[in-house]
């Protein structure tokens, strides 16, 4: 009987110890749970920060990529333009000797020998002109055309009322295109008049 009682006392003590241990575990578990929540929150905040940084870096990369592509396109366009108009300076340099040569072959003469020479020179002049045209040099139409400030420079004026107002009366110096650019504008005399009390201005 005593043995049974002693065993009972031991069992009660053991149960009491177990209860204390459980209580301690519950007490210890609370701060641990709070610590886990705090760590989880910090981790979530860090993830959001990294996602934001990643998004910003990705946007910067895309902008830089677009800028690079635009730069490449601009450089390519500039190279094509430079190549297209590379000989414009050379063409312009040829205009003055070409025009002087063209005037010489139109020189009037009664000398048969000189006429024969001029016929040969005119053939050379025509070849010269064809070579310029093949490179993109083309004369700007001016005589009898309406004045266009984009391609004509008016350096003289006249007031002939029997002709249209603003028409080009005379070409003082020919103008030329080089492909789709103006190599040199035409220097012209234009017709300009107005009516005021039946009088020319």
TrEMBL record:
PROSITE patterns: GRPE. One of its GO terms (biological process) is protein folding. GO terms for molecular function: adenyl-nucleotide exchange factor activity; protein homodimerization activity; protein-folding chaperone binding; unfolded protein binding. Belongs to the GrpE family. The keyword Cytoplasm applies. Keywords: Chaperone, Cytoplasm, Stress response. It holds the Pfam family GrpE. Residues 22-37 have a biased composition (Basic and acidic residues). InterPro entries: GrpE (IPR000740), GrpE_CC (IPR013805), GrpE_head (IPR009012). Its main location: cytoplasm. This is Protein GrpE. Residues 22-41 are annotated as: Disordered. Homodimer. It is found in: Cytoplasm. It comes from Acholeplasma oculi. CDD domains: GrpE. GO terms for cellular component: cytoplasm.
């Amino acid at each position: 009987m005593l043995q049974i009682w002693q065993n009972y006392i031991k069992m009660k003590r053991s149960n009491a110890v177990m209860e204390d241990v459980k209580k301690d575990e519950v007490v210890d578990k609370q701060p641990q749970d709070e610590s886990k929540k705090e760590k989880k929150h910090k981790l979530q905040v860090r993830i959001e920060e990294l996602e934001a940084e990643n998004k910003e870096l990705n946007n910067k990369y895309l902008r830089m990529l677009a800028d690079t592509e635009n730069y490449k396109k601009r450089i390519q366009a500039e190279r094509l333009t430079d190549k297209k108009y590379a000989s414009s300076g050379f063409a312009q340099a040829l205009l003055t000797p070409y025009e002087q040569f063209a005037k010489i072959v139109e020189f009037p003469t009664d000398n048969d020998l000189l006429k024969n020479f001029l016929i040969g020179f005119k053939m050379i002049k025509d070849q010269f002109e064809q070579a310029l045209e093949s490179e993109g040099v083309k004369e700007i139409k001016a005589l009898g055309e309406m004045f266009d400030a984009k391609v004509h420079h008016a350096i003289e004026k006249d007031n002939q009322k029997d002709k249209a107002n603003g028409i080009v009366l005379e070409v003082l110096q020919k103008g030329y295109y080089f492909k789709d650019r103006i190599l040199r504008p035409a220097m012209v005399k234009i017709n300009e008049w107005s009516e005021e009390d039946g009088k020319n201005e």
